[in-house]
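Convert to structure. Protein one:
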Amino acid sequence: MTIASRVLARLLEMPPADTYDITVEKDLEVPMHDGVKLLADRHAPCGGGRLPTILVRSPYGRRGFFGFQFGRILAERGFQVLVQSCRGTFGSGGQFDPFRNEHADGLATLEWLKKQDWFSGELATLGSSYLGFTQWALARDAGPTLKAMVVHVTASEFQGQTYAGGAFSLGTMLSWAHIIRTQEKPGLAPLLAQLGASRKLKPLFQHLPLNEVDALATGERVPFFQDWLEHNAPEDPWWKPVNFSGSVPEVTAPVHLIGGWYDIFLPWQVKDYAALRRAGHAPYLTLGPWSHSSLKGVVATARESLVWLQAHLKGDRRRLREAPVRLFVMGANVWRDFSEWPPPGTRTQRWHLQPERGFAPAAPAASEPDRFRYDPADPTPNVGGPLFTNEAGPRDNRALEARPDVLTYTSAPLEKDLEVIGPVQAELFIRSSRPHTDFFVRLCDVDPSGRSTNLCDGLLRLVPGGPASEPDGTLRVSIDLWPTAHRFLAGHRIRLQVSSGAHPRFTRNPGTGEPLATAKTLVPADQTVFHDPSHPSALLLPVMG
């Protein structure tokens, strides 16, 4: 065990252990308010006394990598760690219904903790993705016992990510459902299922109707996947009990939010940071060049988490940085510290779509609009970006940009560096032949060789009753691209893509307005993008300096 933990600690670039003499109490039964019992493993230094406790609540199991990463590694550095399996997973009683039981189960676990003779009264929570959501679910009501939180690549609500821009996140949600439904199979079956997931799921992303794909992927109907398809309206009350964004300002524990520029939760994690700031709190924010499952992100988070926990549970602030915000600036490939997010000193610069597919700060001249046809039978594919899989991150977009259903607008080579840090937004004047349609916008850096690398993007699903038409029948739409931090180097060009999809990251728009779960008919949309003095389509860039 100590050999494995030493190897993992080295991979995670952790400081030396205080001890390797660790005890593990397995399968502790933690009673819930409804009588269900959840299982937990407690990792603690032998003879360490009543040390501060770190609570990790996970649907992915308590042993293996999770047990080492969150349990033993931290116990070797002077903490007690309780790794608990969420309801209905890995031996815990009840039925796993994502998001819906984490508030009550988290608070019941806290009540149980307070009764244990080994509990010191000092608690922190830790974890990424779903493990981060379980933290937000109990954070407000945990009271003064909760001394610190580290939330990594996650958010206080998952509805936003599930329907980013109004379109269902098919790739992420089907992949996750497949993991949940295969991870507890016996023997090597879970490993083989994950190794073959990409091959198995790829053809299913093209299948219609969507309410059949869960059974095709897992061999059985998945109730929570069906729920997501049915409850896709923005104001659907089904999501209200599992949306904890409203409670974020009331969380008093110090919070360190760690995310990545290519993470699937980035915009909503930044909103959680902003909510804490507006409430007068002093959260830390670290954003690196990582995707959701990036190994480098895991390594950096392990180090940052230990520093945060030592500072707030043990009073050891020697390694805690002064600046609350640390950002990795891509392009320059440097870390920079700031007092807040967005960084002070940025100014909004409008870059306009130009005739002949140009892109520049100057207002556009009189010109004819550009047109393309989006065919959902051959949906515009996604390339890189914020994905749940290892295909995420920066990718070469040239093959994508060569498609006839993708427009590109490209600047002249920059005469000097241009640094962009903050939220990015597009304002487009458009027209579509279909009232139900999507528009997707992506910002890219084109290097001197011609390689076009994606930085950030966003999609907007249009429905009848959406943005009001201009007097001439055009629509003026605002599309929020995800935040970024990037330095466009001198000699590089800035490129904007405009299309109507990024499948299967966003499920294709059939163009008919049929229900998400049962839609089967596919109708092409003829799209028009305007760029003239009366229709100054533009990208709003947060430029530093």
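Protein two, convert as well:
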Amino acid sequence: MSEIIRIRMDDGSVTREKLSNEEIRIGGRALTSKIISEEVDPACDVFGSHNKLVFAAGPFAGTTVSCANRLSVGGKSPMTGGIKESNAGGNVAYKMGKLNLRGIVLEGIPTTKELQILYVSKDRIELVPASQYRSMPVYETADKLREEFGKKVGMAIIGPAGEQLSMAAGIGCTDNEGRPSRFAARGGIGAIMGSKGIKAVVIDDTGAKGPEIADREKFKTAQKAITQEILNNEQVAETYTKLGTPGMVNITNSMGALPTRNFSRGSFEKADEISGQKMYETIKARGGEGNTSHSCMPGCLIRCSNVYADASGKESVAPMEYETIGLMGSNCGIGDLDIIAKLNYACNDLGIDTIDMGGAIGVAMEAGLLEFGDGEGALKLMEEVRNNTPLGKILASGGQRTGEILGVRRIPACKKQIMAAYDPRAIKGLGVTYATSTMGADHTAGQTIRAELEHTNSKGQIEASRNAQVINTMIDCLGFCFFTGSGINKKFEMIVELMTAFAGSECSLEDLKEISRETLRMEKDFNIRAGLNDSDDTLPEFFYTEENPDAKTVFDISKEAMQKIFTLE
């Protein structure tokens, strides 16, 4: 039976809990939000002894079911002040699943300022002194940890930003090749880890047998059906595998939804230079260590990731995703993939969210610290962060705080978290999600871009967002990748068959949706108790009053209408 381990940071004690039969379907975001909602005082100090940090794998982690090994990390967010779940690809959840470990909970705060590493294997759970890693960047830390613990471990690492309790700090997780670049990035989750005195969580699955599966034959049959569905999906092969998430650049640009110059418009004149097609051609032409298609987690067949190489063919960063291109590229007026790759690498190395940092640089540009399009200037701002200067500290606190300190009125954030790379005036259902999500402005909380409606018309957007939030939360609760729905052509009954075989009891799609709805209810209740209310479920005023000249619309869905979003039937 899967279990949860709890580690007290004040005395190092470890306790183990077996999941009950009723909890066997609970994983990922459902588990992080359940623990935080039930055990954390919503009014607590985010860096104090009452907050907790939860790492949770999905039920199918440790298997090679495609796209089923994402990691959820949850706590009370330093950035939003509400509940937070941030998730990442990579191999950490897979190795947790191999150990039959559904969750890791860090509780309390250490009594000293010494850094530690949490090492978890089949035979031992141990806090290891880590003073030699203090202030060490993420990539160097990963290299040193492999020397200490072996080349096959999975790792979740914070950089200097997390140690300094920067509100935009994330957690870098290792991919199949050991790169610590799959980030649980949003909401300041890395700062919570820093407050617990943990530099890294190291998962060693040597000798582990994997999760207990009630009916292995039925499970294999269900897994095979999912595999075939993905392999036969032309959209996966032609779009996700070939272009990955950067393929969204030209799509959103044509919709007037690509954030440009601090969300002042939705189309960028240099979009072709930072598009997925341009990246594909560049990687192909440069050769060397570049790779147009890459799997970030064990078993993934979609392979939407990439390895971007510089002009000499040497790896520059892996991966470079649409959200980073949108926020650090067009949002800052930067139309050069090589510059964006350097900015991306710098964020990864410092352990910081590229979305919020892109937002911070964007508002800094609007404040006049540098011109839009000044890529070299943006790189110098990242050096301010690396050197922990006063300006660097401000930028590392995220776009909302940076804008407030610099006196910028137009800050594209909800619940103090910078929006992902879609202008809400052009994709209004996603605007509803940004405003109402329990998580702040997360696109994966309820992505509506593929909903069958007119995206610039207010009609139907509440329903589209509500449906997307339920489905996307369900995917997060199961530990699947966001692209799973498209990969299996929304045939979610295939996942139902997988769960039935895994748990050994009948399961329906409605059962899985109810876990999702209950998760959303818990999160909403936590946020209310934390002091967030209906006035927080809105977009910044300028989206209502300033027309996006490329979508030719403003956001015109009333705040009163959006308050009905959590009527979850």
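The longest strand covers residues 101-107. The longest helix spans residues 509-529.
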